[in-house]
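Handout, page 2. Input:
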Amino acid sequence: MFKIEAYEQTKSHPTLTLSPNLFHEALKQNPASLARFHVQNPKGDDFDIVYYDNNDDIEPLDTYPAYQKPPFMASYRIYDENDTETLWMEFFDGVTDMVFEELNEYTIVLTKLVLLHTDITVFCTDQRIHYFIPESDRLHVTDRLPDNLDNETLLYIQQELGSGIEDGRFRRLSATYAFHNVFVLQWVLAGRDFSKYQFITVDIGDWAGIGAILSYCARYTIAFSRFHLKFINQNHGYLGNFEEAHLTRYFALDLHDDNATDENTLVVPSFMALTKTKFLKGIPHSIDESVLTPHFKAEMNEYYAGVFGSEKVLGVMIRGTDYVTAGMTGDRMMATPKQMAPRIHEWIEKYGFERIFLATEDADALEYMRQEFGDLVVALSQERLKLSDLHQNELIAAYQKEHADGMYEEKLEDTTINYFYALYILSKCDSFICSGRCNGWDIVQSFNNGRFANCYKFAVGLQSAD
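Output:
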């Protein structure tokens, strides 16, 4: 992205002339990050444009799990704001006003688009926007931005990215993310034509748990079906880190087509960049019980009935070792059992729960909960880890690193089935408390489909656990 800065008098830089294609002309020179251009301006004072790599204009890199490596954002060295067929203008649905703090390449382009193709009114504080866009009764240059910046119908493009968009809020975000949301299809296509493709594939990577994988596969299927593209998996018999042969015993997956070829299958360049779009993340409750094979669902229903019968059950999910070792920060930080205990005690007293079903992979969390709540706690029998068992900064438990003698696949399958048992049983409980935002929360909510009497998610990464 190019930012507009004061003309640097003391140094010589490549010179361009202000025109509607200014940024495209500069991008043709394949600028390195912080490359600078002088701009001759027949409409006013000359100025400079400075290129900033898009990967530098996102949330701080330490908010990403250690197993995810940059780049995390598309560069957009080539794009076409006039190709309305490939612009995802649905991003602006429900928006009546747009506000931006900084005049730059992306806020200029987005302003042009909304003035041409929507009824949105734009507010900014930089008079230089008229170098690029003529005056309009829907373009207001003011000394002070509107006060109602949290209004649900207002799109607020801020200079610095605050908490990010990982919590699904697409009404307040940086210029880079706002631009990416509108141009995401051009990034996927890279100049190609949707009509030449029948299938689409995304390499999720080998870091994701089965919950994340199934959730994203469902989102891909829904998101790209509007373009008549079928999502398929081309990862040679593996779905993420899991053998498809194992998963199809338990899950109803349709991930292949005999007619798919390299020529008719569109490959999405980056899983991570796609997740930063409302195009994908705006799809709610993407999986339900139909993802389970009938025999697996019946087996779990039998388990719940046998263990709990008609008792009133509070489901509690505590993510621990896996999130700590993965380096999760921000709104992905999990509440500790000690932080959760007061709320659990409150609900037991208020609603009269007779049992707690606890889902956790953390041995320390299980021990704490049993000490705190005694015989009320029921948990699946499974192998659990303590943080003390793991080396600092280790990304995955040691037993998941080796493929020796087939034990890796067997262990991974056991872990997967235990995990889904836990999620499904949580969804059958009367109420649900979760340690934070995770794919498990989303899946439990989807399976439950709004039947919980009460549910609560801690948000320690954004505020104190209450």
